[in-house]
Model the fold of this input.
Amino acid sequence: MDKIRVLVANRPRLMRELVLATISEQPDIEVVGEVSDAAELERLVKESKPDFVIIALDEADERPIICDELLALRPQTKILAVAPERNSSLFFWSVVDIRSARVESSEEVILGAPRGMVQVAAL
Done:
């Protein structure tokens, strides 16, 4: 069974160390990196390709901007934002909604589809 690849990117250092202590001994989890500098986070996500990123939750019940950037970069990654001082966490993930519709094979459709000019009816 493949291990769950986790990147820990929490500030402050004490919180990062607590998270690492909690997950590092789990046999099904592999810590693929840790970062304290938000500027390095995107680079590390590209390089380590984690399944999960654990970050700090600075504002209560608000999605950190970095979540949007990381999920755009790697949609299959899930993000856990933790705020232990408030005993609060938020979990973020991306969902791809693939749809289809039957359309006629014509020059109009071939030229209109890339331009968003094709009218479709639901299947």
